[in-house]
Amino acid sequence: MRGAKSAKWVVGAIVVAMAATACGGGSNDSGKGGGATFRLGITEPKSIDPVNAQESEGTLVARQLFVGLYDVKDDGTLAPKLAESAKPNDAGDEWTFQIKKDTKFTNGEPVNAEAFIRGWTRVATKASASDVAYHMNGIAGYKELNGGSSDKFSGLTAEGDYTLKVKLSAPDFEFDKKTAHPAFSPMPKVAGAGDNKSFNDAPIGNGPFKMSGSWEHNKKISLVRNDDYGLEKAKLDKVELAILNPANGVTLEYKGFESGQFDWARMPVPQMPGAKAKFEPQGEWLKADVAGINYIAPFNETSPMNSADARKAISYAIDRAEIAKGVFQGLQEPATALLPPNFKDVYKADVCSSCAKQDKGKAKEYAEKAGLKPGDTLDFGYNTGAGHEEWVQAVAKQVEDVLGVKVKLNGLPFKEALEKQQEKGAKGIWRQAWSADYPTADNFFSPLLSTNGINPDANGKALGDNRGRYSNPKFDELLVKARQTKDAAERAKIYNEAEKLAIDEDQAVIPTWKRTQYRLVNSKKFTNVKIDFYEDPNLAEIGVK
User: Fold this and answer.
1) Domain named Solute-binding protein family: which ranges (predicted)?
2) Among 102, 233, 290, 404, which one is least packed by beta carbons within 10 Å?
């Protein structure tokens, strides 16, 4: 995801700059299948192999190459793919999946229960050092496998060729939703270990597209339609993903759209109103309120953000409404909760008291309680090239003006930013965004806020998505209780309690903006182009005029 967006770290996220690329009116290469080439720009992914695909760029590619038990529809409902059925036992600690028969990987290997066990084991094994393995931490045997004391996933068994049994370490009545993440993809035998470089750069999957050659790092990734795909085949012949300079990727996407180089694009913040005025009348402007959130992550283990009072001081100092109106020019709305409104059964507005409106008095009061003094330095990190510069600068100025601290901005390319956040002793605050990997509140709370979501290695590097390292045993207990609750309405109440604790009382993270995504799309040559649940183009469903 977008984690992340692991679920997925949204590579250029925040409404203003979202992961994808550009559109235009240039010529397309028609293929012999009557399709065409769809072109977009991305920045360099961390991984396109499900073993470690985590941010939006990497998961976009991984979802084209692999298909698992489930996917998620645009409206957030679960869509069966290779799962013909999924049944929990009465206790909710064991699931049985019946897998669609007679599908295969592009090298001819069968996609069966053993292929799923192979893929999940490959992600969770210690040697893979996967940042997305934690999605499986509820499966029995995960701790032993991920800790290196076992090479088998004891909770996974195959009963015949197409029945997968999953034993959980604790009940989870929403486990089936989690299998929509690319980490739960099946794997062919040829994949080998998680650090198989040749496979990492040219994965052999079972999805609607397959690799055309290997990933040309910092240059491009080329996909072609998989004509042996076991489900409905894609209409596009090819997908070309140009890898852009992360320092100005969004600008390059937009220019590429205007010049006809790309068929899908994000836009820099200042250009959005003009782009809307120009391209909306032509039917080339897309808008979607998506299942994600933008927020600031304080590093809870190090001074000065190891104090809830300091975190609240920062939050109260931010005038979200002013930035939404000025920087985002009305195209973004302030967030007052960590969960997005899309999660209708669980969402509650105004969970975050400090998010409702700027309160300079309370900001100074909490700063004084925390020992955050005028003249102190506050590090503020963000990823470059994704359109965040303007709003990050606006937040920094507001915090400086209200609290008298000096905000030191630290912009890094996205891949380097993620690595910096993982370091032991990381400090200050970071721009973050999260886009749902699967349609459950647990997909926000567990990766971003649970103790398990930190997943430190022996050197203290955070391998999980809880980069701020928030840890509260009571919060963890509430998540366990929610998973064990079969009734959805009762489960929602427990999630509400957990969010109130983490976001309002502890201010574990600082919500900033809801995620309304905007894209430009070449509707002159393509049909049925949408922003999907993951904030990506729905490549497998795009038609050609």
Assistant:
1) 78-454
2) 102
Quote the tokens at residue 322: 């002013």
C-alpha distances (whole Å) from 416 to each of 59, 130, 245 are 18, 17, 13
Q: What is the pLDDT of residues 388-411, one digit of tens each?
A: 899 999 999 999 999 999 999 999
DSSP for 287-319, please give it: EEEEEEEEEEEE-TTSTTTTSHHHHHHHHHH--
The rounded distance, in Å, linking the Cα atoms of 416 and 536 is 22
* Cβ neighbours of residue 506 closer than 8 Å, sequence gap 6 or more: 308, 311, 470, 472, 475
Report how far residue 320's alpha carbon sits from residue 400's, in angstroms, rounded to the nearest whole number.
Answer: 15
Q: Pull the structure tokens for residue 298.
A: 């304080």
How many C-beta atoms lie closer than 10 Å to residue 259's C-beta?
A: 12
| List of residues 6+ apart from 461 with CB closer than 8 A | 422, 423, 424
Distance, CA of 477 to CA of 53 (rounded, Å): 29
* Local structure of 396: helix, strand or coil: helix
Residue-wise pLDDT for 451-500, tens only, equals 988 989 889 999 888 999 999 999 999 999 999 999 999 999 999 999 99
Token representation of residue 252: 């390059």
Query: SS3 for 119?
Result: helix
Strand bridging mode 377-383 / 429-435:
parallel
> Which residues lie below 8 Å from residue 432, measured CB to CB, with a gap of 6+?
9, 294, 295, 296, 297, 467, 509
Query: Which residues are paired to 514 by β-bridges?
Result: 293
Q: Going by C-beta distance under 8 Å and a sequence separation of 6 or more, which residues neighbour residue 45?
A: 53, 55, 57, 58, 61
CB atoms within 10 A of CB 192: 14
Which structure tokens are listed for 472?
Answer: 């509260």
Nearest to 435 by CA among 53, 92, 35, 56: 56
Q: Is 72 helix (H, G, I), strand (E, B) or coil?
A: strand
Contact 411, 270 (CB under 8 A): no
- How far, in Å, CA of 55 to CA of 45, rounded? 7
